[in-house]
Amino acid sequence: MTTGEKLAMLRKKKGITQEELSEILGVSRQSVSRWEMDVSFPETEKLIKLSRLFDCSIDFLLNSGFSEKNENTGISFDECRKFIKECGYFFIATVKENKPRLRPFGMIYSNEKGLYIATDKQKNAYKEIKENPFVEVGSYNLATRKWIRISAEAEEENSIAVHEEMINAYSVIKAKYIGERQADFVIFRLSIQDAYIE
């Protein structure tokens, strides 16, 4: 995740607009927009203010290799996937007409760049995520009596490599979506905003 992507994620999580952030920092809205698109980079003084405002380290903002270790919990993409796979299932909460919708999911994948879920474009879950990309994922391990909870923004993933990796991870995808139904298969990358195990 780039510095710009992190700034956009943290700003949205805080519930402020680019214009509001620009007023807080004493810069133009266009400057904030350029930072978030990785066209330009905030000065050191602005990075310090941003780290205080978003309650994160400057190192977190600058580390472009970001393995999605959550700033507060230290949970990586791979640790999230392993916990969920051990549970055998997970639930995803979406929103439809301002009402939460909870449903079981089964396919989850991770690599060094992200945590991914898969669904079918014909399903309601796909339509709800496209309308409102903010989701929550949860899974409970009966053996350890621990939960994982993940708040994220879901973005459609178009990487051919990720599609191939996920297809290879789940034989059911190969059986169902190779051929004429391939266009219905969709993967979302979860931009994690918060994750914790309790």
Describe the structure.
The protein is α+β, with helices and mostly antiparallel strands and 198 residues long. Helix 2 packs across helix 3 and helix 8 crosses helix 9. The protein has a 7-stranded antiparallel sheet, with helices on both faces. It starts with a helix and ends with a strand. The protein contains 9 helices and 7 strands, in the order H-H-H-H-H-H-E-E-E-E-H-E-E-H-H-E.
What are the defining features of this structure?
globular; 40% helix; alpha+beta
Concise overview:
This protein has nine helices and seven strands; from the N terminus they run ααααααββββαββααβ. By secondary structure, it is of the alpha+beta class.
Major beta-sheet overview: 7 strands, antiparallel
Mean pLDDT equals 85
User: Strand portion, in percent?
Assistant: 25-35%
Strand order of the largest sheet: 2-1-5-6-7-4-3
**Helical coverage, percent range:** 25-40%
Distance between the termini: 26 Å
- Shape, per Cα inertia axes: globular
Spell the H/E element sequence: HHHHHHEEEEHEEHHE
How many beta strands in the DSSP annotation? 7
Rg value: 18 Å
List segments where confidence is low: pLDDT < 50 over at least 5 consecutive residues.
Answer: 65-73
- Structural class computed from helices and strand pairing: alpha+beta
Helical run tally: 9
SSE layout and pairing:
Layout: H1 3-14, H2 18-25, H3 29-36, H4 44-53, H5 58-62, H6 77-87, E1 90-96, E2 99-105, E3 108-111, E4 114-120, H7 124-131, E5 134-141, E6 146-156, H8 160-169, H9 171-177, E7 185-197
Antiparallel strand pairs: 1-2, 1-5, 3-4, 4-7, 5-6, 6-7
